[in-house]
């Protein structure tokens, strides 16, 4: 899995855990929902500044957003 996909999945997981839509996260970060959609899909090479905005809004760390979860090798 690419780094962009890992970051996108982590953002989506944390956003959904808060019960937020992409629109709500967009309002909290002053980014567009379209941009956030491409980030969550792993299509956008996100800047560190925007990653920090998202981390602050989701009340998490940059480390949590970029952390790769090991794949289950038993599948």
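Q: What amino acid sequence fits the structure above?
A:
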């Amino acid at each position: 899995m690419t780094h962009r996909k890992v970051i996108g999945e982590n953002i989506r997981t944390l956003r959904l855990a808060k019960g937020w839509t992409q629109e709500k996260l967009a309002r909290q970060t002053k980014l567009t929902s379209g941009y956030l959609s491409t980030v969550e899909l792993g299509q956008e090479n996100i800047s560190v500044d925007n990653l920090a905005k998202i981390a602050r809004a989701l009340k998490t760390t940059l480390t949590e957003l970029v952390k790769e979860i090991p794949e289950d090798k038993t599948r």
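Q: And what stands out in the fold?
A: The radius of gyration is 12 Å.
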